[in-house]
Each structure stands twice: as structure tokens, then as C-alpha cells.
Design brief:
Layout (H helix, E strand, L loop, with lengths): L8 H11 L14 H4 L42 H5 L9 E5 L1 H4 L4 H10 L4 E5 L7 E5 L7 E5 L3 H14 L4 E7 L4 H6 L6 E2 L23 H13 L3 E5 L7 H7 E2 L8 H16 L5 E7 L15 H4 L5 E5 L19 H21 L6 E2 L2 E3 L14 H13 L5 E4 L11
Length: 421
């Protein structure tokens, strides 16, 4: 296993200054401002490798807008009953990310056509971003717990119809759930939000409140969302933002996590995923987790609670975001990573595979690796290049050379080149 790679301090400094001036969230709005919305995946604030072990991860259980019409092509030949049931996962999943707004609009026809004409066979769709399918509300349970209540708004109804029709296309559907960076939930239940030491709600640079991953009561909400996604017909649920905020040293100085269990950050994330997978097992839906790309090349949790050897045993799929533009100049002796996507992706996935190999050598099951690849142009870094079909293909081939045949393409504007299979 390679040692924690060196990070160029000057590159991190420039990155930190730049991030301070721009929102790091992914708004998934109708705007095509991809630069700001892709920033949530930036990998910065790395710290020295920690020697904190993952100790006991045993789970202590508690008692118990108007839409544009979209025309969906006729489904591929199969019975209606067969179409609406969970399809058998292909050996390799090759997906594109689609926002709820784009999925409900006329451009969706072009994306379906892209999937049908290329090697693509899957889509990652938002469940709790953009068009609100649900909202936090009190359940009818005696404990008055907070649950996602399905929205009856016109846009939500239409989006649910689109999901149902997509299911008939024999496209593998992945539900993306924004987990702890969930301002809607943090505002609905302030007790679950990360708090400053003064007791006020903490917000990140973009003014967004986060749900506190240490608040075990809050876990039920994203798990309930995942169950709802299964009911809608999704084949897989993907937990994104399943982490603590970045810039660990600064955030830890500002907040009081109220960590009564005295868990490490990686323990909290791992136990959440363990509980989620156990709760979702009866639905038959696969469980995935997104992680920063550097997690696969690190021995610690890089300050956000994402430690590879803690997460990989708890999910079916682990997805490192190995975007070349998000690596520092000089990384792995590569002067400008954005200009050299193949070597970056190959090295990042080789490191991740080494982690899985170490786990398996110990008799521990490890999740399948399915990376997020860059399908956007990082105009905010210099030098950079336009990412089109050639750059995407270079990353795909690099992943295959690393033994990984599944992938997902990220573009917050959902604009993908007509690359050939």
C-alpha cells in the first residue's frame, strides 16, 4: 500500500483562498453554473495520517414548480410486470448523473438516447435535491418521529411519473441521497444540526447548515428516504455527503459535536452505513457511498470521517470521486493533473484496490469500487483543458487498466458529449 501521498502546501493554500470566495455546495438548480456546483467534491484540508484505530463498530440499536413534459421512448420489449420489478444488475454499471430538474424536462429524451446508443446502462437521479419529492414531517408513530412525507406538488408528481417510466426502459436506476449536508432537515429539526460552541447553528462557507452525523436519531431520516426510493423502483441507493464538513481543524475549533458516545468520526460514518444497509436489506436495494477520491489513497479519514477500511466493509458499492482537476499540482509527480487524467485515475484506483485487497486478505468483505469520473471542465484552475469525449474515454480506459469496469460520469449541468462506445 502506498504511503499517504505528499500534498503541495502552496497548491492547498491557493485552493483554500479560492474556496473561501465561492460556494462549495451543489445546488442542482436549473442554472448551468457547473463550476460552483462541482466544488462540493473538492478535496482539500488534508491532514497528517491518524493512528486512531477503528475499534468497536458494533451497532447499538434503539428500541424500536411546473415541469416540462418529457417524452419517454417506448420501453424495450419486456412484460410490464418485468419492467416494474427490480432489474438484475448488469455486470458493469456505467452511469451518468441527472438532476431532478433535467430528468423532468425535455432534455431527458437526449440523455435516454445517449444511454441507448452507447455503453451506458444506468442513471444516478436526485431524490432529495432540486425538485422536492418529500419534506420532513411528523409521522403517525407514537414517538412523533420525523419522516420524509411525499410531496403532492405538481412538479413532484411529474418527477415520480418520470422515474416510473424510466424504470420501464431497463435502465439501472441509482437514487442519490444527500445525507448530512441537508439544510432542509437541519432547519426542520434544529436539535439535529451541527452547533457552534455558543449553541447557535453552525453553517459552512456557503451559509448551509449540516446535520450532525453524531446524532444517531437523525439517521432514521436518510434511511427512510432510501426506503422510499426503493418503493419508487430504484435499484440502488447512493449516500452522498456521508461525511463531516471539510476543513477539520477550523470546524472542530468552532463546533460542539455533542459526541456523547465518544466515537471517532470514522466510527460514526461506518456505523450509520452499517445500520442503513441492515435496514434496507429487506427491500433488496443495493447500498452505495460516495467518498472523496483521496480517501482511497489515505490511511486515515482525511478529517471528514471517510476512512476506506471503515466504509468499504459496510456497503455494496464505494464510489471515490477521482476527478483529475481536484488533485494538487505535482501529485504523484504529475505536474498538472487536469491535463493528464489517465495517470491520475489509474493511480487513484490502484490505491483504492490495494485497500480492498488488504481487507480481503484479512477475511473482510469489501465493497465493489465504482468511481465517479470527471465529465466537466474545471475552468477555475489553471492550466485546465476542455473535457470532452477524448478525456472521458481516457479516464474510462485508465479505470479498466486498474481492473475497474464500472464508472459514473459527473456533470452538474448534465451535459455529456456524444462519446462512442
Amino acid at each position: 500500500m502506498a504511503a499517504h501521498p505528499p500534498i503541495h502546501k502552496f497548491g492547498i493554500f491557493l485552493l483554500s483562498v479560492w474556496i473561501a470566495t465561492i460556494s462549495s455546495g451543489c445546488s442542482n438548480g436549473a442554472s448551468d453554473s457547473a463550476a460552483t456546483r462541482d466544488l462540493h467534491r473538492l478535496e482539500h484540508g488534508l491532514r497528517q495520517a491518524s493512528d486512531r484505530p477503528i475499534n468497536d463498530l458494533k451497532l447499538k440499536r434503539k428500541p424500536d414548480a411546473d415541469s416540462i413534459n418529457v417524452k419517454i421512448p417506448a420501453p424495450k420489449a419486456q412484460s410490464q410486470k418485468q419492467a416494474l420489478s427490480s432489474i438484475k444488475p448488469p455486470n458493469s454499471i456505467r452511469a451518468i448523473y441527472v438532476t431532478s430538474y433535467v430528468a423532468s424536462g425535455s432534455r431527458m429524451n437526449q440523455l435516454i438516447d445517449l444511454v441507448n446508443r452507447t455503453e451506458l446502462n444506468a442513471m444516478v437521479l436526485d431524490v432529495n435535491s432540486g425538485i422536492a419529492l418529500t419534506a420532513p414531517g411528523r409521522s403517525n408513530a407514537k414517538d412523533g418521529s420525523i419522516r420524509p412525507i411525499p410531496s403532492e406538488r405538481k412538479a413532484a408528481k411529474h418527477y415520480r411519473e418520470v422515474i416510473g417510466k424510466l424504470k420501464q426502459q431497463n435502465i439501472y436506476l441509482i437514487a442519490r441521497i444527500v445525507t448530512f449536508k441537508n439544510p432542509e432537515l437541519a432547519k426542520a429539526v434544529p436539535a439535529w444540526a451541527i452547533k457552534r460552541k455558543s449553541g447557535a447553528t453552525w453553517t459552512d462557507r456557503s451559509g448551509t447548515p449540516w446535520v450532525n452525523p453524531y446524532k444517531q436519531a437523525s439517521w432514521e431520516y436518510p434511511i427512510a428516504l432510501a426506503k422510499y426510493a426503493a418503493e419508487l423502483g430504484f435499484d440502488e441507493v447512493q449516500f452522498d455527503y456521508v461525511r463531516f464538513p471539510e476543513n477539520e481543524s477550523k470546524v472542530d475549533r468552532e463546533v460542539d459535536y455533542a459526541n456523547t458516545r465518544k466515537w471517532t468520526k470514522e466510527q460514526a460514518i461506518a456505523v450509520f452505513l452499517r445500520q442503513a444497509k441492515a435496514a434496507l436489506r429487506p427491500t433488496g436495494i443495493a447500498v452505495a457511498a460516495d467518498v472523496f477520491g483521496m480517501v482511497g489513497s489515505s490511511e486515515d479519514d482525511i478529517g471528514i470521517g471517510q476512512k476506506w477500511n471503515a466504509i468499504a466493509p459496510e456497503v455494496d458499492v464505494i464510489s471515490p470521486m477521482v476527478y483529475p482537476s481536484h488533485y494538487s499540482e505535482g501529485m504523484w509527480a504529475i505536474a498538472y493533473p487536469d491535463l493528464t487524467p489517465g495517470p491520475i485515475v489509474k493511480r487513484a484506483l490502484k490505491d483504492a484496490s490495494n485497500h480492498n485487497r488488504q481487507l480481503k486478505d484479512k477475511g473482510i468483505a469489501a465493497a465493489q469500487i465504482r468511481p465517479w469520473l470527471q465529465s466537466f471542465t474545471a475552468t477555475w484552475i489553471h492550466p485546465h483543458q476542455q473535457y470532452g469525449a477524448a478525456q472521458i474515454r481516457e479516464q474510462i480506459e485508465a479505470a479498466r487498466k486498474a481492473g475497474i469496469h464500472s464508472y459514473m460520469l459527473w456533470n452538474s449541468s448534465c451535459k455529456y458529449p456524444q462519446f462512442k462506445s
